[in-house]
Amino acid sequence: MTGPAPGPRGPVPLRPVPDARRLSDVDAITSDALLARGDPGLRWLGEQLPRRALVGPRAGLPAAPADAADIGARVARHRGVDLTALAGTGDGLRRVAQDVRGRHRALAEEAGVLWDSWAGPAADGVADGVVDVARAAHGVVDVLEEIASRVEDAGVLVTDAVGELALALGALADPPAPDDPPAPVAADVDAVLAAGPERTTASDVAVLRAWAAALDARLHRLLALLDRTDAVVAQTWADLAADVERLWTRPPIDPASSAEAEAAQALLAELVAPMPVAVPDPDPGRGPSGLRSPR
Question: Where are the chain's structural domains?
Fold first, then answer.
């Protein structure tokens, strides 16, 4: 075994690989809880965008790139995902995998005791059956654990994407940082609007335009983030649904005999088929995500 690769000043120490993130470690039980962190920003937009609608005609500007209702509707697409249920699905599949292992282990132990005092064609037939079940059990366990892992990974990806959106929304309501350059604020805009169109000066129009430009720039950044969030979430759920469908319906082993295939299907029918795998709807445009099961 070779050591760390040498660097310009000697060997570079190897860093430990961090543990895989678990969905059960996320500090939220639903996507609604994540998005609640962005609610102050949504309220802030609800205050600013009506003001922006008044500024446009006075300053000769086009309408804002989005209104509060549009943004609220797009955020609402990502509500309704039960992260706890997804984590429970993964944990449940792992428990079933452990059950399959346990059943096979118990069968092998009982058969081992039997073979100590039994020989002949009948014993050989039982031995062949135990081998078939063993191979089937290994295949079923692999399928269950892979689906559990895919569910976990998808939940973490969606949590990260929705969490990033929530943080960006919440930041909209943050006050300007001390080192930010001076810029018109809502009170400056309200003062100009209150004076009436006939008293609006060129400097007033400059104030309105500067304030609107800053708000529009923030809206464009938010809309771009919403586009990315929509794409990531939709692709993640679509990939998960395809993975579950593929894993669930494929033969859990590449059987060398029909007996192995029958044993595998019997295990699936008994232990797995009654347990649905919840997969949120991959289309974020349908509102709160529904849950469905593979065929």
Answer: 30-58+80-169+182-283
The Cα-based distances of 120 to 30, 45, 113, 115, 129 in angstroms read 59, 81, 15, 10, 14
pTM of this structure = 0.72
Alpha helices (runs of H) in 201-281, residue ranges in sequence order: 202-249, 258-267
280 pairs with which residues across the strands?
Answer: 291
Report pLDDT digits (tens) over 181-205.
778 889 999 999 998 888 889 999 9
Q: What angle do CA 6, 8, 11 make, to 5 degrees?
A: 30
The CATH number of the domain covering residues in 30-58+80-169+182-283: 1.20.1260
Neighbouring-strand partners of residue 285: none
Give CA–CA dist 162/20, Å, rounded.
19
- How confident is the model over 158-168, as pLDDT tens digits? 999 999 999 99
